[in-house]
Amino acid sequence: MTYAPKGAPKALLKESSRQIANIIDLNKCMGCQSCTQACKNLWTDRPGTEHMRWMNVTTYPGKGYPKDYESMGGGFEADGTASPGALTNMSDVGDNFQFNHADVYYQGKGQSVHLKPSSALTGEDPQWGYNWDEDQGGGDWPNGYYFYLPRKCYHCTNAPCIDACTHNALFKRDQDGIVVLDQDRCHGDRLCIEACPYKAIYYNPVTEKSEKCVMCFPRVEQGIAPACDRQCPGRTRLAGYMDDEDSDMYKLIVEHRVALPLHPEFGTEPNVYYIPPFDSTKAFAEDGSITDEGRIEISVLEELFGPDVGEVVRKLKAERKKRQNNEPSEIMDLLIGRNFWDRFSELTGDPADLDTFSTAAMSDGSDLG
To answer: Best label site of 1, 195, 296, 309, fewest CB within 10 Å?
Structure first.
């Protein structure tokens, strides 16, 4: 809906005429954090947002961001009832490290003092932080492996945060299905954080309100892809609308069915999809020879993407083989994305032409509809 009346029923708050979506190709993501930085610079440079990373990239296997979010509950049970969830704390979402810049740069202490972080919570050495376990991964020697997993709000079709909010501060925009959070209505109850199984909503201790990814809707309104998608140097991203049957994104999700949601068992119908990683690094046999098998076991991918991932990986391997044999493969051509603009369908506008807007105004809840 365009704007939610305060007493509107939850089903109405989840309605939209169109639905924006994303695909992220995990075979291409190199963990460079360009998407993270693009989002951080644009949206979370205000007091109380220092710990927030609406867009984030972590190493899998790993604890993720927020820390251990996969085991914190939320979402829905198989029968559609709400699944109880836990709150994140400041440490889980990365803390706000403080550094001893004055001691190092201005106190004349030479080599006796070195730059080091401290926790904003305790003042002591931090015990956890964003990307604390970067590149550690999993697997047994010599077949260790890892891959990068970019995440943000999934702007779910069945968004549990909308159900959980007792003030109707959360709702979908009618024109694009982006889930927004009205700061004027938010009371900081954080029930939305408990309800979200991806823990993609964050608490601002300065304003005492919750905040989340807004899918760069001021850009989207002007036909410009979200900043995280535009800034990716690896061409991992596709963006568009789920009703645009001519878009590359639609073809990969609906026609070829090789893009999958993260944790479909959460029951939220997320609108960010992934091309699962496959055979990125060849495994060693017991005698030390290199095999034709990848190191990532299908069971690991099933934990993330559900039971359909095995068939998707087999299809991707077969399509790659076709291309290697100089046979046509639309799937491989779509994933390669030789033309940058094809990846964004209706969202190919130039950010240089973007009408000015205030991120502070967006955070205050104005112009959300």
So the answer is: 1
Q: Which residue has the tokens 């900043």?
A: 227
150: exposed, middle or buried (Cβ count in 10 Å: 0-12, 13-18, 19+): buried
Do residues 162 and 201 make contact, with C-beta atoms less than 8 angstroms apart?
no
Other beta carbons within 10 angstroms of residue 158's beta carbon come to 15
* Predicted confidence (pLDDT) per residue in 99-123, tens digit: 999 999 998 887 889 999 999 989 9
* pLDDT, tens digit, 9 for 90 and up, residues 4-57: 556 678 999 999 999 999 999 999 999 999 999 999 999 999 999 999 999 999
Residue 209 tokens, joined: 């309100």
pTM comes to: 0.93
Structure tokens at 170: 């959360």
Closest CA to 221 of 366, 20, 6: 20
Phi, psi of 23 (to 5 degrees): -125, 140
Cα 298 to Cα 271: distance, rounded to the nearest angstrom:
23
Q: Which residue has the tokens 């979010």?
A: 69
CATH number assigned to the domain covering 10-91+141-363? 3.30.70.20
| 316-347 b/e (C-beta count within 10 Å ≥ 16 → b) | beebbeeeeeeeebebbebbebeeeeebbbbb
Residue 93 CA to residue 247 CA, distance in Å, equals 35
- DSSP 8-state code for residue 162: H
Question: Bridge-partner residues for 212, per DSSP?
Answer: 201
Helices (H), the chain: 10-13, 34-43, 101-106, 160-164, 191-195, 217-220, 227-230, 248-250, 298-305, 309-324, 330-336, 359-363
Rounded CA-CA distance 368/351 in Å is 20
